[in-house]
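Contributing new records

If you add data, match the layout below exactly. Sequence lines come first and carry their own label; structure lines follow with theirs. Keep one chain per record. Anything else will be rejected by the validation script.
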Amino acid sequence: MFRRIPLRYWHGGVEFPLALSGIGAYDEANQPLHSEVSYPDQYVSIRAWVPGAINTKKTVTFVYHVRRGVLGYAEHDELYWNATGNEWNAPINHAEAFVTVPPGVAHADVQTAGFAGPLGATGQDYVVDRVDRYWRFRTTRALRPREGLTVVVGWPPGHVAHASALRRAGWVVADYWPLSLPLLALVWGGFVWWAFGRDPGSKPSVKPEYAPPPDLIPAEAGALVDERAHPRDVIATVVDLAVRGYLEIEPITTAFGEADFMFKRLKPVAGDPDLRPFELFVLAKIFGADWVINMRLLSEVRRDYENVFPPIRDQLYRMMVRDGLFPASPGSVRKGWMLAGALTAISATLLPTFGPAWLGRYDPMLPIGVVASGLIFIGWAWFMPRKTWAGVQVLARVRGFQEFLERAEKDRLERMPSDTLHRWLPWAIALGVSERWIFNFQGLKVAAPTWYQGRSDFALPAFAHDLTAFARRTEEAILTTRRGYGASTGSSGGSGFSSGSSGGGMGGGGGGTF
């Protein structure tokens, strides 16, 4: 046979977990029976094997200790106990409950009440009498399926030592510890970030720089700022190659009237010492594997339906690790933490099957806590990549140059070469300040670009408009991929004397069967 006891009860309008310990099953001779305890669906299920239970009468005793079983009020202490439970599918011909009051309580000071019937009923189909040191509650009729007996016994305060505030706080921690898992994940992530995810050394001061750091390309500068590669870093690389004479970009209108852009390769790239492997990789993604092709439409790059950006991003990270800017690929670091977070969240679905049975008493708090912890690990993924000491120093210079691009004074720009706008434009694109950089040249004489063939004579507003359209269409092209873009059972709140009912109270309840 088995017994099912709810692990949640309501008291004072608040739901409390029920903590059971010392669970056991015994026969008529008080010998332990082979039993098994599990925790399905916020219940404790006690299954006991009774030898020889065929066409006979057997007595089985279930024993358990309930923490916080006696409720304390200002005017009395009280045991409010769901003696049989209201979830039996079999009738109960006769039910009795014996209650022992604390020593020293006078019989005249004991108050009793009871309720019989289905859940929520206040039936009085019971009698109560005193037998020696016990108060005995007996039903006066057979209980139908899903009916039960609830008893209430009260006595003056002071006869039961209630737990201290510190101990009650410990119970709360023990009852709700799964909800602390997200906080632990947050603290653990913070410790790991402090130990391994912070940039080394103190943060250097930033001062204006009028040229970018040497031996650095615009894409590296863009990825260094927030430790993440963006599509604009690829766009900056394409424009940088065009500014340096490797490409020419021309806006065109297709036969269908759609705006497009033509890439023209102007000189051979094989064996060129001025080209870095990353830049060759970007050119290969634009023109494909056939290096004989010297012209390519931007729309053709999109129609290839290749996953263009992720391999370029990974190549950029590898280059920055080789250049000593990162100790490890930021992408790999983030993927590792995201994978750890995803596995942590997924493990919440495996705990009921593969975890120990006692974890079932913390459902659904435990799955919620585990999933939230996994999400926190995923959130930490964006903070864990770090730069090397050299990377920190280079970033300070990049920030200084970014400040110049954003706030360059017109008198300074007037004294600079006429191609300054185009020479530093790739850096402005990578650092996300291209609009501000172009705006700084309003009213100044700017040389027409040699790398960009507009539809009409060069004018700064029209050039800015075309550049915005080119950036938007290029980002769309490199981001295109083949995949495209049960009823609860509870008890009444409050005292059993004032607002009790059958099925109220705690500690018993539930049901069972043979």
